[in-house]
Structure formats: structure tokens, C-alpha cells
Design brief:
about 575 residues, five-stranded antiparallel beta sheet, five-stranded mixed beta sheet, about 65% helix
Length: about 575
């Protein structure tokens, strides 16, 4: 609320200045032209001093920022100035009496009720006492004086109550707005996480969720403890994001290992305090069938006490979503394996029922002919050879038919590049954006894992260009050679600062990091060039033989291990 007050006092908004100076100007004019009171020269001096004081108080409000103590002091100084002004200009008969609404408005709107009513009571007692003892002509009692001025006191009372009531309504509206914003943030987070998970390999999901914990909580450090250890030789390992002080990873790993049994049984967040490294809020990642690890963030004690509910809610949201997505990836992997096994069995059955039967007949006929060819006539030999030839042709036709049914390249089915083009065409029609695709080289020699990775990068890059860059034209160039694959995605969108986006995890999305992870997993390079207002250019290079070398090295390592 103090931040909003500072914005209200900023140079962009003149409401506060206009209200304050118009009220002071009107009362000053009345004070200057009335007959009673000090001489005109003294009145002009008081008015000038009043405007200087008002300018100084207004600047103090503007510069106070979020310091509530400074706001209290400023409101107190203004109220004291109003008391002194009333003292110099006639007490309850002062034309500046209504200017007390300025500090009263500030106290009722932005300070606590206790402080506000304490100031109102102090002002009431001071003005009443001064008027009774110094500005009273001794003809009226205190009760009569209060009755005569009851309109002013009632107006001040109702004005203060009304402003406090409006401030309460405003506060509730701000809370409702904050909840709406929080809900929208959750929906945006859900979309980004699911999208990143869809375009990511399972081994990269832990990194994505650790990074997103950092982004969503807006803290300085987050981590993911992976009990499956896919990236560390099968052992548990720690993934950290953000600012990681020296020695904190080792201390955190030790603490998690000590509390491993407790974390497995935990259903909510817990705080782990590490000597010399501070407090960590952690939560287990568990699905219905599996324990995946632990996610957490480093919190300062002050920020944790203030935002405990928020941090716990964000981590709980991320842990539930992470468990669901990890479980889904595991099921998809198993489903893919079962589909492969099922397809292998189908091919085996088909080959057994058709081709293998012909081959078995051919082998048996040749074997029989080789044993009896001396005892049979030439016509019989020719007849047997004719049968073998017909069986060979039938087997060849069955084999070719099977191959054609399995190969999209042979049966005229959709190639991978056709799928990419279809996706880009749909994207273009859906968002009314011009998308051009230029392809050189043959995609038939491209391995399936390369096809998947390139499709994800193209989808991510073009999606970001439309959603965030507001592009109207996107150009995709793909060059496939025997030794490398090059991809270029160029758009005419709003662009961004690459250094700022990559250095600050609070403002960076998951798309760029996800593309980097994909490219690095293939031993490739990615170069992102972007300027605000001038679009973005993403260039990716993947060496074609990287995966083969990787698999060969793994096989060699397995062989050395066995030997």
C-alpha cells in the first residue's frame, strides 16, 4: 500500500498536489482578505511559510517510499504544523481549520487506526484548549463552545470514519486483486511447466523444475535432489539453480541424506537449518507409486516469516505437478517400450506366417531335389525348379509388402519434414502469422532422436516468437547434411535483451533453457541474437554423428566394466 501511495505522489499524478494546493490556496485567500487578524504583511508571510511547509511535506511523502516510520513522522509533522497554524490564525475561528483534512486523510488512508485516532484526539484537545484559554472572549463556556463548533467536529469525525471505511474496502479489493493475480500466475506457471515438460527429455525435467521453483518463489537459490541419479552414475545427486555459495551443495547433500527416511514419510514442507548456510524449505516429490526426490529453496529468516504461506503454497503446487509429470514421462517410456515390443511381435508373427513359410518350403524343396536329382527325369527337375522359383517370387513379394507397410518412405506416407510443415501451417493459420519453411537435404537419413529434438526446438522457437515477440513473420531454415544439421529461426518480433534474459532467472522463461539443454545433449551449439524492437535470430548446429559416438562410448564402457 505504501508503494501505491508513492506512485500516487509521483510526478505522473497531480491529484495529490492539486488537492493540497487548491485547498491551501482557497483558505489562504479567505485569510488574506478578511478584516480581522494580524496586518496584511504578516498574513502574507504566514501564507508564504505555509506554502513552503506544504511543498516540503509533499516532497517528504513522495520520497518516503516504503518506510512506514517515515510516513508516520511526516503525518505527525504535518499535523503539528496545522496546530501551530491554527494557533497563529485564531484557533477555531481560523480559516485554515479545514486544512486539517490533509493530514487526517493521509492518516486514515495509510496508517493504523490507533495512530490515526491518536492524532485526531491530540488535534481535538489542542485546538479546543487553545481556543478556550487564549481565543475565548470569556463569554461562553467550554460546553457552549463545543456545541457551537459541533459541525466541524462531526465533519472531521465522519470524514475520518469514511476514509477508513473506504481504505478498508480498498484493502480488501487489493487482496482480491492479489489473489486473482496469484491465480493467473499459477495458470501461467502451469502452462509454462507443462509446455516445457512436453518438449523435454525426462532427464532434464529435474533441472526445469529446480529453475521454475526459483522463478516462481523469486528467491535466490533452489535445488532438486534426484534419488534416481540419472546424471551421476546411478547415485543420488543434487541439482542447484541460482546463487550457490561455496560449500552449500555438500552441506545440503549431507543434510538430505541424514533426513532421507524422514523426507520419504513427509507429506508437507519442512525447514532444514544448515549451520553457516541458513534455512532451506524442502518438500518431497512423491507420486502414487514412486518417490522421486526432494525439491526446495533457500529462504532468509525474515522473508520466510513474512512469506511462509506463499512459499509453502508454491512448493506444494510445484511438487504435485512435478510428481504428475515425472510419473507421466515414466508411463510414456514404458508405453513406448511396450509398443516397440508389440510391433516386434507383430512383425515376427507376420514374417513367420508368410515369408518364413515360403523360405522353409524352398529350403525343403532344394534339399529334396539335391538328394533325388539323379533318380528323376529332366522334366521332373524342371517342374521342381519351377515350383521353387514360384515360391521364391511369392516370398519376395510378401517380404516387399511387409517392408512397404512398415516404411513411410516406401508407402508414400508422411515424412518427418511433412509433419513439421503441417505444424507450422497450423501455427500460421491459428495466429494469423506468416511462417515460411526452407529445407535443404534429405530428412530420411535423420535419426529419430534428432527429428524429435529439432521438432521441439522449432516448436519452442516459433511459439515464443508468437507469444512473447508478437511476430508477424517467422522464417525457418533447415539444412541437413551427412555430418551436421543446421537450423535457423528468424522473426521480426519485439526482441529482448539476451544477456538480461539469461542472467536473471526471475525474468527468463523456460523455453530458452530448455532448447539449450536439448542442444547440449546432442553435443551441438546454439546461438541466440536478439535486440529489443528488432526481432530474434536463433541458430542451432547439431553434429550428426554425436549420438552414435555417445552410444559407442557407452558400449565400450560397458565392455570394460564386464571385463
Amino acid at each position: 500500500m505504501i508503494t501505491q501511495m508513492r506512485k500516487m505522489f509521483s510526478g505522473g499524478s497531480k491529484v495529490f498536489y492539486l488537492y493540497r494546493y487548491i485547498s491551501l490556496g482557497g483558505t489562504s485567500l479567505v485569510y488574506a482578505i478578511e478584516d480581522r487578524g494580524p496586518p496584511l504583511s504578516l498574513k502574507i508571510g504566514i501564507i508564504l511559510a505555509l506554502f513552503i511547509f506544504a511543498k516540503w511535506i509533499t516532497d517528504m511523502y513522495t520520497q518516503s517510499g516504503q518506510a512506514s516510520r517515515t510516513i508516520k513522522i511526516t503525518v505527525g509533522l504535518e499535523m503539528t504544523g496545522m496546530m501551530i497554524l491554527h494557533l497563529l490564525s485564531g484557533g477555531m475561528d481560523s480559516p485554515f481549520l479545514w486544512c486539517v483534512f490533509n493530514p487526517a486523510w493521509m492518516a486514515a488512508s495509510y496508517l493504523s487506526s490507533v495512530y490515526c485516532w491518536f492524532m485526531m484526539l491530540s488535534y481535538f484537545l489542542f485546538v479546543t484548549a487553545f481556543t478556550y484559554f487564549f481565543a475565548n472572549d470569556q463569554t461562553q463556556t467550554l460546553a457552549n463552545m463545543l456545541l457551537n463548533e459541533n459541525r466541524f467536529y462531526l465533519m472531521l469525525l465522519f470524514m475520518t470514519l469514511s476514509i477508513q471505511l473506504l481504505a478498508g474496502v480498498k484493502s480488501r479489493l487489493e487482496i482480491a486483486s492479489a489473489r486473482t493475480t496469484e491465480t493467473m500466475e499459477h495458470m501461467k506457471s502451469l502452462y509454462q511447466i507443462v509446455e516445457a515438460a512436453t518438449h523435454s527429455e525426462s532427464e532434464n525435467l529435474k533441472i526445469i523444475f529446480a529453475e521454475f521453483a526459483l522463478k516462481l518463489t523469486k528467491l535466490k537459490m533452489s535445488f532438486f535432489w534426484d534419488v534416481n541419479g540419472s546424471g551421476n552414475g546411478g547415485h543420488d545427486h543434487l541439482i542447484t539453480q541460482g546463487v550457490t555459495p561455496v560449500g552449500v551443495e555438500a552441506a545440503l547433500s549431507t543434510a538430505i541424506e541424514i533426513h532421507a527416511a524422514e523426507l520419504r514419510q513427509l507429506d508437507s514442507c519442512m525447514v532444514m537449518s544448515l549451520p553457516e548456510h541458513g534455512d532451506f524449505l524442502v518438500i518431497p516429490i512423491k507420486s502414487s507409486t514412486r518417490y522421486w526426490g526432494v525439491m526446495g529453496v533457500k529462504v532468509e529468516r525474515s522473508s520466510y516469516e513474512e512469506g511462509r504461506h506463499w512459499f509453502v503454497k508454491q512448493l506444494y503446487f510445484l511438487s504435485e505437478l512435478c510428481a504428475v509429470i515425472l510419473e507421466r514421462h515414466q508411463l510414456e517410456r514404458i508405453e513406448n517400450q511396450l509398443m516397440i515390443i508389440e510391433e516386434q511381435n507383430r512383425i515376427a508373427d507376420e514374417m513367420h506366417d508368410s515369408v518364413s513359410q515360403y523360405i522353409f518350403g524352398i529350403v525343403y524343396a532344394v534339399h529334396s531335389l539335391s538328394r533325388k536329382w539323379k533318380d528323376i527325369s529332366t522334366d521332373q527337375i524342371k517342374e521342381q525348379l519351377q515350383i521353387i522359383q514360384e515360391s521364391s517370387v511369392a516370398a519376395s513379394q510378401e517380404l516387399r509388402s511387409t517392408i512397404y507397410s512398415l516404411s513411410s518412405r516406401k508407402n508414400g506416407g508422411a515424412f518427418w519434414i511433412t509433419t513439421v510443415k503441417s505444424h507450422l501451417d497450423s501455427l500460421s493459420k491459428l495466429h494469423a502469422v506468416k511462417v515460411t519453411l526452407n529445407v535443404t537435404g534429405d530428412d530420411h537419413g535423420l535419426q529419430v532422436n534428432y527429428q524429435k529434438a529439432l521438432f521441439r526446438i522449432i516448436s519452442e522457437a516459433t511459439g515464443n516468437a508468437i507469444r512473447h515477440g508478437r511476430s508477424s513473420h517467422i522464417k525457418v531454415d533447415l539444412s541437413m547434411k551427412s555430418d551436421e544439421v543446421k537450423l535457423s529461426v528468424l522473426d521480426n518480433g519485439s526482441g529482448f535483451s539476451v544477456a538480461e534474459r539469461l542472467s536473471d532467472p526471475k525474468v527468463s522463461g523456460l523455453g530458452v533453457n530448455n532448447m539449450e539443454l536439448l542442444v547440449q545433449s546432442f553435443g551441438g551449439t546454439i546461438n541466440i541474437q536478439s535486440t529489443k524492437g528488432k526481432g530474434t535470430h536463433i541458430q542451432v548446429t547439431l553434429p550428426s554423428g554425436h549420438q552414435d559416438k555417445k552410444e559407442l562410448n557407452e558400449l565400450q564402457m560397458m565392455g570394460e566394466t564386464r571385463s
